[in-house]
Amino acid sequence: MSQNKPNAVQTTGHVWDEDLQEYNNPLPNWWTIAFYITIVFSIIYWFIYPAWPVGHGFTTGFDKITYVNDQGETKTSHWNTRALLMKEMNEHAEQQKPYYDKLMAEPYDKIAKDQDLLNFVASAGKTLFGDNCAACHQSGGGGKVGFFPNLTDDDWLYGGSYDKIQESITNGRHGYMPPFAQVLNDEQITNLANYVLSLSGEPSNAAKAAKGNELFHSQAAACFYCHGADAKGRHVIGSANLTDKIWLWANVPAVESAQGKVEAVKKVIESGLNKGVMPTWGGRLKPEQIKLLTVYVHDTLGGGK
Amino acid sequence: MFKHEWLETNVGLLLVFTMLAISVGGLVEIAPLFFINNTVEKVEGVRPYTPLESRGRDIYIREGCYLCHSQMIRPFRDEQLRYGHYSLAAESKYDHPFQWGSKRTGPDLARVGKKYSNEWQVAHLMDPKSMVPESVMPRFPWLLTTPLDTADLKDRLMAQRAVGVPYSANQAEYERNVKEFGAENAEMLKIDDAQKNLLKQAQDGNFDGDRTNVTEMDALVAYLQVLGTMVDFSKYDDDNFVQYR
Asked: ipTM value of the model?
């Protein structure tokens, strides 16, 4: 073996299986140099960035970050990720700021005529709506029968004006209708269901609907208190308009048979409604984000009126 | 002279020195945090979980929700825009173990509390695709039919108390909690009343939409609904927490 040659590479002297040996080469130069550079780098790093714990604090480093906070004050802090975030948020806001400023300054009817601003609303609103609203109202705002109202049609529980939409988003909504199973008997509820169906031109029994009509406007059932004498609903309490073909809770269009439609409406009257809960966004989103979403719902989704 | 060969030829020694070398990294990075005053931000509102929320957290861990969800919003722009204010260390100071996580198949949940209604949470856990058509989250329908086991509730709270969560087991601790968290919260933290408080919160909150029984769904939704809601950030300037880092 080469062992005996002069100038041969040194071995560690370990021998296995008679002739298996281990070279003892020095580390390549480039490797050692790179290693020393990392050490030098870390020492420089200690001086620039927060590094060493000292007592109950730590060395903060020489690097500084200057940012503007929401109050408009310019502040300087030692380098840290939270200060960096403040700076980045404000640089980002810098690009969007003119739009948001305009959005906050102008009244809704002027915004509606400003195509440039509407384009901004459509693109920024898409993300905001996707992150916060789409899980319920679905990506395009189409809603889900039995759960969440459609925001793209011009039927509104609480009103489709800018102000009403903004109110819905800021304070949230919670529609309530009491259960009538204990208050009315089955015949009465059947009559009411027929009346409600007749209002939107669905198949119904005319005699029963006539009795339902009477009951709807009587003190006994008192439906008209909430839904109004014309059954068109009242925006202040979000009672549904019962005269249009749009259904949120009783999925009438999905049922083929006339009998099935009656059952669907009866079920709503019997058990009442308490699960229409729209969360409050006033604390979670900023005022400018809420205003942007209001315009997004009203104009981009296009259901506003 | 110290020779490397001693270590390499002595397995026991090698083991001890390897462990020493590795623990240097841990010690240098972790230990100082226990002594630095600013590690846990001074902030109002953070309290231990109520008994019901705490059981919900147990179920969250049992079902492995953490395998797909983190609970830690990092101080980055896109995260702030999507999820809200970055998480504070103070917000998980009563979490044992914390649920920060590092795997996000689904979104971060650190601020999911009050974002959706109870109805949505229940419908989503029963069948995520029914609410979010493109979801890959599995269904958890058994939560709604499994009654919540509260037999060992006290033991669970005592265990948390043992690692420093301020649930109260005596009058002195109760009074300390009144000072720290207010009378109403202090009531909730009494270990002796845990059973009663759990039932009451489940009744009042009606998290799963059925008041007649307390299910695992009640507990999990109660937990989800409190996540990230304890600190009222409107009380602080947006850059208030910069000073702690």
From this structure: 0.88
